[in-house]
UniProtKB/TrEMBL annotation:
It is a multi-pass membrane protein. Keywords: Membrane, Transmembrane, Transmembrane helix. It is found in: Membrane. The keyword Transmembrane helix applies. This is Bile acid:sodium symporter. It comes from the Bacteria. Pfam families: SBF. It comes from Gloeocapsopsis crepidinum LEGE 06123. Gene3D superfamilies: 1.20.1530.20.
Amino acid sequence: MLLANFILAPLVMIALLNVASFEPVLKAGLLLFGLCAGAPFLIKLTQTSGHDLALGAATMLVLMAITVIYVPIVLPLLLSGISVDAWAIARSLLLQMILPIVLGMIVAKWLRDLTRTVQPWIAKLGNYALYVVLAATLIGYFPNMLDIIGTGALFVAIAFVVAAFGIGYGMGSGQDHLQDVGGLATAQRNTAAGLIVATQNFSNPNVLVMLTLANLLGLILLLGIAKLLSRDN
């Protein structure tokens, strides 16, 4: 999964961006989409596909932890003409993603009754918060969205999601549940991490809008794929 998510999938995105011609800010948004792995929504996709939730959660945590180290190093190397503060990226990801997970694991370990009570509500709140952010971004930057639609960048996003699913599915071949979960894990990128990086390191809103649109299209596509996978599970 590390090879699929941090070597092969990013190479696919880089290859697609070399073939297509976009503004640097759109390339930045698509690169963010391609580099950030370990999406929390993988839990929902795993559940929808009828697979082992523990495997989905473990895969998500491993990919998310590596993303915090990987993105601050790789993103500045791939972006030309755009200045990115690697430490700012790492600090924001550590504080807003890793720290809450560590605190949650501590609470789950020592306050189990409390965890069982609040976890369903916190999970719903987290999902709704992400939906609100995505919807507010699309509504607030609607003119920017129209400009992006005409560039063909969304076709690159869709092609990447399909290719990434194929990579993850192939890398998990012969590993029972990991085949389907691996495909979903590789194709569903970590939009939460991407949003943190986009909002705190890029002044141009098109980076954020491009990332949001790519995630929305990928989400719709992967929910359909997960439903298809559930028929055999």
